[in-house]
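Appendix B, record 7
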Amino acid sequence: MHSYKKYAFAIQILSYIMILTMVLSTIAYWFFPLSYLGLSNTGLIPCTQVGITNLTMLQKILGFFVNSILTALLIGGLLLVIQLMKRIQHNEYFSLKNVSLLKLITKTALVYAIYSPICSSILSVILSLNNAPGERVITLTIGSAE
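Structure tokens (predicted):
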């Protein structure tokens, strides 16, 4: 097997692992915060500083929904990468289908980059929803850790 086919296979496996990890960590963060905290202490997943344990169920569901859109964008991009890697393994390098897959991957990345600050703003409103009037927070960040 050629080295590029090995790399394509490795990228596929890592993409599947990332998809599984993202789904489980998103669910654990909003509905099983103690389990999420235990995993973040091991260093397997990133630690966030927002305490979810004091939120109402409505806040958790709304936060999960808003955060799931971001996770779905990442999963969609990874599924497109998996399709591209399968085509590379079958010796299809410069086909129109590969070009269209690359266009979809870049569009997904663009939508993710646009939605990410919007997501953090909506989450700041959701997390401070039960605060007293005048103590609710809305933030908009321009920039990212990536």
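Remarks on this record: The radius of gyration is 19 Å. The chain has a mean pLDDT of 83.
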